[in-house]
Amino acid sequence: MANQMDTRPLSELVSGLVSDITGLFRKEIDLAKTEASEKMSHALTGVEAFAAGIVFAIAAVGVLLAALVNGLAAFLVAQGMTEPSADALSSVIVGVVVALLAWGIISRGLSTLRGENLKLDRTASSLRRDAQIIKERV
């Protein structure tokens, strides 16, 4: 078999080599696509579980806040306030406290997301240095 390959012209050998390399790259790309698809499917399963957990966490917070309102109302009734007034006042108190907490958390999140905090300063600086070095050498 080695003798048969030796008698083939160089152009045929190069053509075969290019064909083999092209086939290899196609197979590698197909493998990468398949693997990426599997990883994305796995990641989406995790995202779905995370989203379901968030829904239950929000529901739990709602139940706990309702219990807090009822507990505060019961405390106010025990202090001599009428039940309708105690219910209304406890709802307002809990609502205002939760709104202030939400506002503080949202403000902190927005300040973190400001444009200045998202700039890639080190990367931009490195690219400028690289461009300067290339200009000096050319």
Describe the protein.
The chain has 138 residues and is mainly α. It is built from 5 helices and no strands. The longest helix has 69 residues, at 10-78. The protein is elongated.
Secondary structure blueprint with pairings:
Elements: H1 2-7, H2 10-78, H3 83-112, H4 115-118, H5 121-137
Helix pairs in contact: 2-3
Q: What descriptors fit this protein?
A:
single chain, 138 residues, mainly alpha, 91% helix
- Residue windows where pLDDT falls under 50 for at least 5 positions: none
| Secondary structure tally: strands | 0
- Decide which structural class fits the backbone: mainly alpha
| Strand fraction | under 5%
Number of helical segments? Answer: 5
Q: Mind summarizing the main beta sheet?
A: none
N- to C-terminal separation?
A: 52 Å
The global form is elongated
Query: What are the secondary-structure elements, in order, as H or E?
Result: HHHHH
Count of domains: 1
> Which whole number gives the mean pLDDT?
86
CA-atom Rg in angstroms? 33 Å
Helix content: over 70%
Task: Please give a quick description of this structure.
The chain is mostly helical and 138 residues long. It contains five helices and no strands.
